[in-house]
Specification:
Blueprint lengths: L2 H7 L40 H13 L4 E5 L2 H9 L7 E5 L4 H11 L5 E5 L15 E7 L11 H10 L3 E5 L17 E5 L13 E5 L2 H14 L5 H11 L2 H20 L4 E5 L9 H7 L6 E6 L4 H10 L4 E2 L9 E3 L11 H6 L6 E5 L5 H12 L1
């Protein structure tokens, strides 16, 4: 089944009760039993729920995987992966990553005995210098948030397999429309489905997809035991969003490309981070493993002027100054004070997240209006 068909039909079938084409919202916590243990596959909604099951099957389908799991948020999904590990285990992570991920790693799991090593993965060989016999997981974010570094997933997987290390990929920025990490050899793919999968800025949800049945069962056990599961309404909204993922992503990519080229020529903009440029450090890797270059980009004002960056985000009208990304509406953010505020200044600046950096989540509006908005805000 081709991708655009899998977003609509993958893992889905009419509801068995009344033939509903869209999975109903099973807003229930518990299920009737005819005798102890005599149920129809569902007994308690923390463990299983028909709406969530439909979503989990859909997640697996669009990532070309076997097993999907849904969570209350992207961070809840990440936390579940971390709970596979034990005190003393080591994790190698991209050094440019979402601030919430960094916070989860360093303030929640480091005190519990995990060790994290943050590495620039644009050159996969950088990982070799920090691998030890305690390394159990490589956490990859690609493209990275917010400087759009691209990591060669296949190269990372090759290193990991030689050392018996799991590879997990945060595929939130790309979406499975653009990139499918399991196909490239990764063990786990993670999504903040709040973003592109949901696509309408009206839900909070996370997901994991794997191929290995043993790994799926371990993650499902933690999912149930820890209980960070989504409600059926958010599952329904995510399923609805996935059905239009292809057409939305096509427009996101087209609009972001036009805006990236506009900003790159603007005299008041010093640098634009977007993997579609031929001078992007890993442009060839992006062309190899990505179908398109995505709807996200970042830029730095001329002279890395912080005040100019703040004025731009304050003056934007069609772009909304807000957290998050991946919705149909265009959003602008100031990572240093918003999404990446939890990362110490010296560390975030080392990876390029300077105070004058502005991040754009380019929506699906008419790109001419978006460019006019940027023009008036920058001038």
């Amino acid at each position: 089944m081709h991708f655009n068909s899998s977003t609509i039909h993958g893992g889905q079938s009419p509801d068995i009760a009344y033939g509903a084409v869209m999975p109903p919202i099973y807003q229930t916590s518990t299920y009737a039993q005819t005798t102890p243990g005599g149920h129809q596959g569902f007994e308690y909604s923390r463990t299983h729920n028909p709406t969530r099951k439909a979503l989990e099957q859909g997640l697996a389908s669009i990532e070309n995987g076997e097993h999907g799991l849904a969570f209350a948020s992207g961070l809840a999904a990440m936390e579940t992966v971390m709970k596979l590990l034990r005190p003393g285990d080591e994790v190698i992570s991209t050094d440019d990553l979402y601030g919430g991920s960094y916070r989860l790693f360093t303030t929640i799991f480091e005190p519990l005995g995990l060790k994290f090593k943050f590495v620039n993965m644009q050159r996969s060989e950088n990982i070799l210098a920090v691998i030890s016999n305690k390394t159990k997981l490589i956490w990859v974010e690609t493209p990275t948030n917010p400087t759009m570094q691209v990591v060669d997933i296949g190269a990372i997987v090759a290193i990991a397999k030689k050392n018996n290390i799991l590879v997990a990929v945060d595929n939130t920025f790309a979406s499975p429309y653009i990139q499918q990490p399991l196909t490239l050899g990764a063990d786990i793919v993670m999504h903040s489905a709040t973003k592109y999968l949901g696509g309408h800025s009206d839900l909070i949800l996370g997901g994991l997809v794997v191929n290995d049945i043993d790994l799926a069962e371990r993650l499902a056990f933690i999912q149930n035991a820890s209980g960070a599961v989504p409600g059926p309404m958010d599952c329904f909204l995510t399923l609805r969003g996935i059905k239009t993922l292809s057409v939305r992503m096509q427009r996101h990519c087209e609009n972001a490309a036009a805006i990236a080229h506009f900003l790159n020529k603007h005299p008041k903009i010093e640098k634009v981070y977007w993997p579609g440029f031929e001078n992007h450090p890993n442009h060839n890797v992006a062309k190899k493993q990505m179908k398109d270059f995505g709807g996200m980009l970042s830029f730095v004002t001329k002279g890395a002027d912080y005040n100019a960056a703040i004025k731009i985000v304050e003056r934007l009208e069609m772009f909304t100054l807000a957290e998050s990304l991946g919705g149909v509406e265009s959003l602008a953010g100031h990572p240093a004070s918003m999404t990446h505020a939890s990362i110490p200044k010296a560390i975030r600046e080392k990876s390029g997240v300077v105070d004058a950096l502005v991040r754009l989540s380019v929506g699906i509006e008419d790109v001419r209006d978006l460019i006019l908005d940027l023009e008036q805000a920058i001038s």
